[in-house]
Design goal:
- The chain folds into 2 domains: 111 residues, no CATH class; 193 residues, P-loop containing nucleotide triphosphate hydrolases (Rossmann fold, 3-Layer(aba) Sandwich).
- Helix 1 packs across helix 2, helix 1 crosses helix 4 and helix 2 runs antiparallel to helix 3.
- The protein is of the alpha/beta class.
- It is elongated, with a radius of gyration of 29 Å.
- Strand 5, helix 9 and strand 6 form a beta-alpha-beta unit.
- It contains 13 helices and 7 strands.
- A 5-stranded parallel sheet has the order 4-5-6-3-7, sandwiched between helices.
- The protein starts with a helix and ends with a helix.
- The structure holds zinc ion.
- Zinc ion binds next to loops.
- Zinc ion (ZN) binds next to loops.
Length: 340
């Protein structure tokens, strides 16, 4: 998958920071250990000078074989002594070595000239982050979700009140985010305007991003605009949004049904949903439309994919945005009471 140069550079910078940090941590471990076991410092110095002596012997070429065998034996004995000291201290044998996050490439990003999987993951995460830049993700968290806006009186013959119901939805989303994996199901958030579908989907995104997954979040309206520009525009997009949409670990499509409807859009949405299902990549869709409305607007085939494979979470209650706006108005209109 093609990424732009700055995404590659940002990912390499992250790797370089990881190496620097681990070098520092490794040095701290060494200094602390040498403080307790001065003999360990001597061994370390001897090992370094052994390496220099070996290099010199090779360089001068005198009795090289004999000299090298002797050095190697000496080296082995020193290593063994060091391991014994570490065991005595109850520390693992690799305690004085750097612990890289990726043992395959030692956080270099390449193995034998080939790009390592860890660098690919970093670039994908970075590309997702760049795509989400316009979204104020940090504002919508589980902590800032308030159940007080949902009535505690059951309505329309329901057994549970909207608040009880939304508490279950909230818990489901929280567990979903905390335990997210590539085996997690896809979700459909369905309900009227202003019931915090966006808030909860962003809260899920926040947690899943922190777990290190590549998450793309956007409204269907924006995504389709980008896809149309990529498909019909003269320039090819450097970050290849359509592939990122297919390949990101979690895709969150907000407000399905508000985008401008064309045959290209309908086909693209079906293709996106279907490809991700086949590849076992979770998607969260939020929509105001009912299943019959979705079927009318998209296709029966599309809705049957949703019914067969998505966990559907209905959202109930009164428009939270309107209630918040009313609260703000109330506080503004009566400053004397809030500011005596
Ligand atoms: Zn690696």
């Amino acid at each position: 998958m093609g990424y732009s140069k700055d995404i590659y550079e940002q990912a390499m910078k992250t790797l370089s920071e990881r190496r620097t940090e681990e070098t520092l941590r490794c040095d701290e471990r060494k200094q602390a250990f040498f403080g307790q076991y001065p003999r360990a410092r001597e061994i370390e110095n001897e090992l370094t000078s052994t390496a220099i002596t070996a290099a010199k012997a090779v360089l001068h070429g005198r009795n090289t074989k004999e000299a090298l065998t002797k050095l190697r034996e000496n080296n082995k004995a020193l290593q063994k002594e060091l391991q014994t000291l570490l065991s005595e201290a109850g520390l693992p044998q690799d305690y004085l070595e750097p612990h890289y996050q990726c043992s395959k490439c030692r956080d270099e990003g390449f193995v034998d000239g080939k790009m390592c999987g860890c660098l690919k993951v970093l670039m994908r995460t970075e590309a997702c982050r760049k795509l989400n830049q316009q979204t104020p993700l940090s504002l919508s968290t589980f902590e800032s979700f308030d159940l007080k806006y949902y009535s505690d009186t059951p309505e329309n013959g329901q057994k549970n009140s909207p608040r009880q119901h939304m508490e279950q939805v909230f818990q489901y989303c929280k567990n979903y985010a905390e335990n997210f994996s590539m085996q997690s199901p896809s979700l459909l958030f369905r309900g009227g305007t202003g019931l915090s579908k966006t808030h909860l989907s962003l809260a899920v995104a926040n947690v899943v991003i922190q777990k290190g997954y590549g998450v793309v979040y956007d409204s269907v309206h924006n995504i389709m605009g980008t896809l149309e520009r990529e498909r019909f525009g003269k320039e090819t997009a450097p970050d290849d949004t359509s592939r990122l949409l297919m390949e990101c670990d979690l895709l969150i499509l907000d407000d399905l049904g508000t985008e401008f409807s064309t045959s290209f859009v309908t086909a693209s949405i079906y293709n996106l949903i279907n490809t991700r299902l086949m590849a076992h990549r979770p998607t969260i869709i939020s929509t105001n439309l009912t299943l019959p409305e979705l079927e009318k607007r998209y296709t029966e085939r599309f809705v049957s994919r949703i019914i067969g494979h998505y966990v559907r979470l209905p959202f109930y209650g009164r428009d939270v945005r309107q209630q918040k706006a009313a609260e703000r108005y109330y506080h503004k209109a009566r400053p004397d009471e809030t500011n005596p």
